[in-house]
Specification:
globular; Rossmann fold; single chain; alpha/beta; binds adenosine-5'-triphosphate; binds nicotinate mononucleotide
Length: 189
Amino acid sequence: MHIGLYFGSFNPIHIGHLIIAEFVANNTDVQQVWFVVSPHNPLKSEASLLNEYNRLHLVNIAIEDNSKLKATDVEFKLARPSYTIDTLTYLQEKYPANQFSIILGSDSYQNLPKWKNVDILKRDYAFIVYQRPGYLVQPEPEVKATVLDAPLLEISATQIRKFIKNNTSTRYILPEKVRMEIEANRYYK
Ligand SMILES: Nc1ncnc2c1ncn2[C@@H]1O[C@H](COP(=O)(O)OP(=O)(O)OP(=O)(O)O)[C@@H](O)[C@H]1O
Ligand SMILES: O=C(O)c1ccc[n+]([C@@H]2O[C@H](COP(=O)([O-])O)[C@@H](O)[C@H]2O)c1
């Protein structure tokens, strides 16, 4: 099976992430998209991170009615911070019959030179890159990359956490069940 891996902190998952996952699942030969919840992104501070099990739960309730979307806690058991090459090596060994591609925004794609073992990643895996405003990418010819013009909601989890703190509405920005769960538990307050 061809799996698109969508890595992120998902702190919290929002409609912008879901639009991308659904678009990839329906407009590429990827059969399933797996949200890989990263306990700790190597390039981000840990300060405002909600516990990873709570973030995973929010992802699960966001996608529970969509059979093409899955969530995985694979990085919870691996060494931290979570380097994508290590996760992929583990997944490829665990699921040898699967083909894994990496789903990335063009902003993250431009950051790739900062990633661990990027040459091996580019040699062994395909990328699915969706354009984000201000970050036009033209992947090098030797990289296996599909560039998509997916619909976008330009919002970040950082902005959403600020909204929650300031009691600004997040209705229609967060899936309703996610919004209710965050509110009930007073996350990000
Ligand atoms: N609004 C959005 N639309 C599409 N992709 C997004 C959007 N926001 C983030 N992404 C991408 O989704 C992936 C996971 O995002 P992640 O949760 O780590 O970031 P974020 O929402 O920008 O969070 P933060 O603001 O906490 O840094 C990354 O590849 C990121 O580039
Ligand atoms: O492997 C790396 O060196 C590496 C460095 C930075 C980010 N990543 C992965 O990319 C994901 C998205 O990162 P970001 O910064 O675009 O939100 C993150 O959750 C990690 O899985 C991976």
